[in-house]
Design brief:
Blueprint lengths: L8 E6 L5 H13 L3 E6 L9 H8 L16 H8 L2 E7 L1 H8 L6 H8 L4 E5 L3 H5 L1 H12 L3 E3 L3 E4 L5 E5 L3 H12 L8 E6 L4 E2 L5 E2 L6 H12 L3 E6 L11 E4 L3 H12 L8 E4 L6 E3 L18 E3 L3 H8 L6 E8 L3 H14 L4 E6 H4 L4 E2 L1 E5 L2 E4 L3 E2 H17 L3
Parallel strand pairs: 1-2, 1-3, 3-4, 4-5, 8-11, 8-13, 11-12, 13-16, 16-17
Antiparallel strand pairs: 6-7, 9-10, 14-15, 17-19, 18-21, 19-20
Helix pairs in contact: 1-2, 1-8, 3-5, 4-7, 9-14
The structure holds flavin mononucleotide.
Length: 407
């Protein structure tokens, strides 16, 4: 989870659907990421889930009454003013209809009508309700009125046991949508090419050379760049990681495949992308010859000839005229801090890139967390150690700032 939710104030509105139990998981994910969550119930929500559960998870009592006995002020106005995001999980057909009609007949609808923050709704309903022209009309009104972003529904099994479009998006996807709604939109209109993961160099049909890269750093950067509004092309070496929502993924295997895919994504004149983030661990060497048949075991020693792979980033750095695309390199070394920084500084010049993200192999490979230093011509900035998803934003802050400079 990313720090982008730390301290953010989220109003989580729950309405009357069986899927309401999943809103507990959403609340849990938000709270774990540091968000302050105020749960609101529609009148029927408590038929499906318990207010105590949400109070326990969020540390705040659930609010459901406009006219709570003894309460002062206007709760819908206060909640709307204080919230940076309103998340409706699940959103019933009835609630969507009331919101589309501009109704304010319960605390949830009144808060939504009063809010100026983004509203993200996760519809959940029987596929027939979803497909009904009235629901579709309401959705057009809601999304057309801006501020209401939909996440899901998805195709799958619904509470009745039937299948179809109407099943609520999963909690992870809902939190990703919340993050996107809260993200700064400073990369809108930009195209970022991000590489991630290892490359694989085949020796024969069953053996290969590769490295320990998981792809997590590059995938985190791609997801956050997308959340910040960029068009993202993610060129991924072999990794089982899921594709971040809204990102165009191109799967490759070898360093040569990756070079070709990067070339296509940047265009011959390097003008098809605004930035290239080379987070992939591209193999430095490939076997001089690849065997079609499995090499047979013998009693003799086997010498494997290795040919250097092209340095993709250095080639782009050498070909770049001017300051676009912004170039971000990574330097991973198994050495002490001073040595890692020295390598990173050397890479900055030898590859003619704008920033090198320096990290240690022991901290980086396969882990969810990392410890990195951004090395630029102006100096070195050590980032607070943390999850890769949290490190993605400061790296993208650098890219966004560079893109504001004249091209
Ligand atoms: C068992 C049960 C499950 C329901 N599930 C849904 C649902 O998934 N989606 C939906 O739109 N309505 C569903 N409804 C109908 C809503 O609960 C009903 O329209 C209610 O008025 C919604 O009020 P609210 O949106 O203010 O919570 C369900 C009703 C029952 C009895």
């Amino acid at each position: 989870m990313t720090s982008a939710l730390k301290g953010r104030r989220v109003a989580l509105a729950v309405s009357g659907s069986i899927a309401a139990y999943k809103a507990v998981l959403v609340a849990r994910l938000l709270v774990t990421a540091g968000a302050q969550v105020q749960t609101l119930f529609t009148r029927s929500a408590s038929q499906f889930v318990g207010a105590q559960t949400f109070a326990g998870v969020t540390g705040r009592p659930v609010l459901s009454e406009m006219f709570a006995p003894g309460a002062a002020g206007e709760p819908h106005v206060d909640i709307a003013r204080e919230s940076e995001l309103m998340l409706i999980v699940p959103a019933t057909a009835d609630l969507l209809a009331r919101l589309a009609g501009g109704r304010a007949d319960d605390l949830v609808a009144a808060t939504a009508l009063c809010s100026t923050c983004p509203v993200v709704a996760a519809p959940a309903m029987h596929p027939a309700m979803w497909a009904h022209p009235a629901t579709q009309r309401n959705l057009r009104t809601l999304t057309g009125d801006a501020r209401v972003h939909l996440v899901g529904p998805v195709d799958g099994e619904v509470a009745s046991g039937e299948r179809g479009l109407g099943r609520m998006a999963e909690p992870d996807a809902i939190v990703a949508a919340a993050l996107a709604a809260l993200a700064p939109r400073d990369l809108v209109g930009r195209h970022l090419v991000v590489t991630a993961g290892p490359t694989i160099e085949d020796i024969d049909p069953v053996r290969f050379l590769s490295n320990r890269s998981s792809g997590k750093m590059g995938f985190a950067i791609a997801a956050r760049a997308r959340a910040r509004g960029a068009d993202v092309t993610l060129i991924a070496g072999p990794t089982p990681l899921p594709t971040p929502a809204g990102v165009t993924r191109i799967d490759v295997r070898s360093a040569l495949d990756m070079q070709a895919a990067v070339g296509r994504a940047l265009g011959a004149a390097l003008d098809a992308a605004d930035a290239l983030v080379m987070a992939a661990a591209v193999g430095d060497y490939r076997p001089t010859s690849t065997h079609d048949q499995k090499l047979k075991r013998t009693a003799d020693a086997l010498e494997l000839g290795l040919t250097p792979n092209p340095d993709i980033l250095a080639a782009v750095g050498a070909a770049r005229r001017g300051v676009r695309p912004v170039l971000v390199g990574f330097a991973v070394e198994a050495a002490g801090d001073a040595q890692v920084l020295a390598y990173a500084r050397a890479k900055l010049d030898s590859k003619r890139v704008d920033v090198v993200v320096a990290n240690h192999a022991a901290d980086a490979f396969g882990k969810d967390d990392n410890r990195v230093t951004l090395v630029t011509r102006d100096g070195a900035q050590a980032l607070a150690p943390g999850p890769k998803s949290e490190l993605a934003d400061p790296i993208l802050d650098f890219v966004a700032k560079k893109l504001e400079e004249p091209g």
